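Weekly puzzle thread! Below is a chain. First person to post its structure in token form gets bragging rights.
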Amino acid sequence: MVKEKELLGLCSYIISTGLKAGATAVEALAQSQNELETDIELSEISSVNQKIGTEIAIRLYIGKRMGSAFTNIPTKDSVRDAVGLAISAAKVTTEDADWISLPQPQAYTTIEGLWDDGIAKTNPSEVVDLTGKLISKAATSEPGLVLIRGGSGTSSHTSAYTNSNGVSCSERGTTSYLVEAAMAQTESGATPLVVEYDVRRDLSLDMEGMVKRVADWVRICKTKVNGRSGKHTVIFHPQAYAPLFGYTLIPSIRGDNVARGKSKIADKIGDTISSELLTLVDNGIIPGGAATSKADDEGVPRQKTSIIEKGILRSFLWDTYWANKMGVKSTGNARRNMRQGLVDISPTTLVIDSGAREIEEAITEIDHGYYILNVQGAHSSNPESGDFSIVGNPAFLIENGKIIGAVDGLMVSGNIYEVLNNIVEIAKKPIKLFSWIGPEFVAKNIDITAKE
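Winning reply:
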């Protein structure tokens, strides 16, 4: 893995080389990483892999003409050749009248908890041992449980960004993870697949808690029950609403879609778009957050951006290009496709504020409803209208204040903004996913189609 200082040196060399070659603006992003990972298939370790590599993305402008290039060889000769390719591309492309400038220098927030020496020193045998422990614990966690897939891994990475406006930053980080996906045989076939994972910036992975959660859900899944079609109360787990929001609400808060007229809520800043119980924040600077970093892929400082505050739409997410075009400031949400040179807008860690009660208390007050642990089909949602039709899998029936069993083929449909306005409670305990932190929420009058 290439060190920060070396990456910064290469990026600075790219800037000077590009300017000498006739570019009027140049930027370079370099990323180097060392990953260890194991994969599980049917309770056996199927592979152990180590990936070590460096990627360098170059983007430059000649006037308003853009050219980009990529290399995975971290040497001066290689990046010099890449700059030449980017210059050649810029000379033959058409002008982008909307392009204004690359980012300007800004101060960065100091963020703790992003690097762990233990992860950086991890060797393949330690990751294999960790995976072996996961297999052993899962095997005894619930009778008949089969660990279908999963694994563990660690990653260390460094990155550096510079541009011709004087922006220069670098950072390093580490992550570790565990994944378990399990099911069990039943008299009528098999339970739905239950998936849990844990991601940390250090090695304090909660294997015990993850294995217990999977076993508890698989145990409930063994009891099959029929649902009832109609409008019902539904509890959404973060694993369920993260993909649903990802294909409906999130595209509408991206600045590029707002500018292009592809957002249903483009003109709703300051308006109420959800229940007042909902506060949603994009927070790129959470200490120890799995997706936390001090800068985005354009060197713009990460920040905390309030998107929905007590039901009121407060902000969209921006990168530099679209923020300049619309006369606003970047929110530090640029994400780069390293090989293609393209930049788009992406959230960091989306956080939903917690409520007052544990979810178990809310369940006791539901006479008939459903708990959705995960979903399928969210990708087929309409990002412009917010309409969706998904399958809850696993989905559980709640009767007389108790979860009594799993419901196969439960269809959930509607419009995301109707769901947001029908939220009647948000649970107390936040659940951490890779790019989401939030508790379950309870929504009323949700359209359900079930086998009766």
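Puzzle host: Confirmed. Bonus trivia for everyone else. The first strand starts at residue 25 and ends at 41.
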